[in-house]
């Protein structure tokens, strides 16, 4: 089941890559190759993409706090690096899932993927600049008050940029959709469920469908599953 409707600001590039690879494999024995790749991208692919970015940023923030006692200021260049990290994490998983023990297919997918990832990252540099500015402002605010509602702050900040940066309005809309859908997904992963009570009247609660890694990602900040959408903590 898809986690998101669109793959954020990179949806056009992702769709193009899926179609390109799908066309090359249309005549293969795997008739549903393109459909399966698309399903993978919008479900497992999203989680891998976000997890890789989160890991990079967590280390970066911890180093900043350790050295300066404050969260880091974020540059557009750092944002670009983070997106590259997210896309880089996808390739080996795609090969493992769709081209295991098929060297020629793996090589073809790798070539197409490298072109796609470069284009996807470089097509949205202006967007990374405002994302970096918003994140820096949020970090400065969090240093003063860690109880700030991160999701609300980010949404309001992006909406304000729609009027001042109309050329980025569509990217902002796509990002906010991605943000809201991913936050909703993450919240579901930690929704408590109650086991049926028999002779023991004490209900037992546990996270639903959460691996140790996903629990770690979710628990880092209450409603801020949004962290996985950018370097926001």
Description:
With 233 residues, the protein is an all-alpha fold. The protein has one domain (8-194, 204-228). It has eight helices and two strands; from the N terminus they run αααααααββα. It has helices at residues 11-24, 33-68, 76-98, 103-122, 125-144, 150-164, 169-189, 212-219; strands at residues 193-194, 205-206. It has a two-stranded antiparallel sheet with strand order 1-2. Helix 1 (11-24) packs across helix 2 (33-68) and helix 5 (125-144) crosses helix 6. It is globular, with a radius of gyration of 19 Å. The two termini are 27 Å apart.
List the main descriptive attributes of the protein structure presented here.
233 residues, mainly alpha, two-stranded antiparallel sheet, disordered C terminus
Q: What is the ordering of alpha helices and beta strands?
A: HHHHHHHEEH
Chain-averaged pLDDT: 83
Structural class: mainly alpha
Question: Can you tell me the residue ranges where pLDDT is under 50 for at least 5 consecutive residues?
Answer: 198-233
Q: How many structural domains does the protein architecture include? A: 1
Strand ordering within the main sheet: 1-2
What coarse outline follows from CA principal-axis ratios?
globular
